[in-house]
Amino acid sequence: MTQKTETVHAGEALVWQGDAADDVFEIVEGAMRICRILPDGRRAILRFVFAGEVIGLTEGEEFSFTAEAITTVAVRRMRRSRFEAAVDADPALRREHVALICQELTAAQEQMVLLGRKSAEERVASFLVAMMRRAGLDDRSCAAFDLPMTRLDMADYLGLTIETVSRIMSKLSRSGVIAAQGRHQIRGRNAAGLLAIAADESAPRALERRAA
Amino acid sequence: MTQKTETVHAGEALVWQGDAADDVFEIVEGAMRICRILPDGRRAILRFVFAGEVIGLTEGEEFSFTAEAITTVAVRRMRRSRFEAAVDADPALRREHVALICQELTAAQEQMVLLGRKSAEERVASFLVAMMRRAGLDDRSCAAFDLPMTRLDMADYLGLTIETVSRIMSKLSRSGVIAAQGRHQIRGRNAAGLLAIAADESAPRALERRAA
DNA sequence: CGATCCCTTGACTTTTATCAATAAACGTGG
DNA sequence: CCACGTTTATTGATAAAAGTCAAGGGATCG
After folding, report:
1. Which strand ranges, in their side-by-side order, compose the sheet holding B13-15?
2. Which protein residue has its CA closest to C1' of D10?
3. Best of A9, A14, A63, A109 to disrupt the B interface by mutation (most B CBs within 10 Å)?
């Protein structure tokens, strides 16, 4: 069961946009970024992938993105054909497969709201909240959590520039909402404050409900 | 086979964010918008849905969005439980189901790039190209196509304001790339020009390929 | 310990949003 | 079918937010 893993060093690519999508990968350890590049070089990061998550679930013939290691990464590689056959054969696996894709879609939708309608400060706060939760921290916790990616990665994920991200991180530190411990570790100091800044949807259903 | 359809009039909601997601809908005729609202009232449109497309494929317990009719819409309603059972029972249907979800995810990813990294003009041009293609028009065609949604809908979909959308539509008209025929119909006059403005990724793989 | 890379901060510019005033399209009823 | 009222869109002037350019400061890694 414990299959061998491959190592991808920080900064190296696991797959390139345009490569034949013959494999599916499970991240065993570390963090990766999923990028897409515009013709003139602008970069968008579609998502970050952490240990336990899967890359390549929904690809067609070719990968539509480049996947690069942020830290040293350990991955398990599976032949797509074998993977798909296994999923197809097992109803439980099938359900899990669909659930994973749906989760990815849900995350993408939240990101569209963030990119389309939130201010720079709200974007950074939302991102920090998401990272905090991913680390398994409670919304009231003040424990530290990692931010393995660079400011540039954050900027390309949040649709901002590195300078804007940096300024907002500084501002949040100054106002005591977070406390930076080096560049890649944050201690939440006031998670409620972060949450308030994030402007996250608590669905004001009543407000919208005018017509039947 | 030809089940009865329900009618949703322009401006009415088919489902509300927060409603129990007990049904799946197929749009038979017309166009809808899928919206999410932030607590302070800001609105994001996640996608537009046209005839032949399905709403509610990936929802959990509750709908995470509000679906409103842009034009008069005819929908076929299916009980989710029946729908899921049918999909689960038929391998071909299962594949189609997964393919549809993947398509939605692909669209969401392209939208993330648009919202995160494209200028206002590029966003509008990309949108017009997409609408042109959806209408079945060739990239060299100069036929007219419909834009059923309002400028506000476009703005909320593209992460812009109504004024910016309007200004850019005017600019594209002035420069002869499109020709407006009323508010809701566009004649492409120079699809290549639109395409060039759209800054769409033609994956410059070679450029990026530095490291092994 | 030194070199590099990444990040931070400041000054200034650009883009897009906001506010406000028309103007054009649409729908309704006469 | 036309006139009117309403809604939606356009345009202009101004403001705000974020981007760009540039200089320095801190981490981090051999």
Report:
1. B13-15, B66-69, B31-37, B43-50
2. B166
3. A109
Query: What is the residue whose two structure tokens read 């005591």?
Result: A176
pTM of the predicted protein model: 0.94
For A66-114, the pLDDT digits (tens) are 999 999 999 999 999 999 999 999 999 999 999 999 999 999 999 999 9
Q: Which two tokens stand for residue B76?
A: 């076929």
Please return the burial class of B3, using the count of CB atoms within 10 Å of its CB with bins 0-12, 13-18 and 19+.
exposed
Q: What are the tokens at A93?
A: 């696996």
Please report, rounded to a whole number, the percentage of residues in chain B having pLDDT higher than 70: 93
The token pair that represents A185 in the structure block: 């570790």
**Does residue A129 contact residue B87 with C-beta atoms inside 8 Å?**
no
Q: Is the CB of A161 under 7 A from strand D?
A: yes
Chain A nearest C-alpha distance from B102 (Å): 6
Digit-coded pLDDT (tens) for B143-200: 899 999 999 999 999 999 999 999 999 999 999 999 999 899 998 888 889 999 999 8
Q: Name which of B83, B113, B100 is nearest A159 in CA terms.
A: B113
CA distances from A203 to A126, A188, B13, B47, B122 (A): 16, 25, 16, 18, 31
Task: Taking residues B1-23, report their average pLDDT.
Answer: 91
User: At A90, which amino acid appears?
Assistant: D
Q: Which two tokens mark A70?
A: 């942020």
Closest CA of chain A from B19, distance in Å: 9
Q: Which of A116, A186, A98, A112 is nearest to B96 (CA)?
A: A98
Contact yes or no for A159 and B116 at CB 8 A: yes
B183 Cβ within 7 A of any nucleic strand D atom: yes
Quickly count: other Cβ atoms within 10 Å of residue B32's Cβ: 29
Question: Strand C closer than 7 Å to the CB of B164?
Answer: yes
Q: From the centroid of its chain, how far is CA A211? A: 37
B159-181 burial, b if ≥16 CB within 10 A, otherwise e?
Answer: bbeeebbbebbeebeeeebbeee
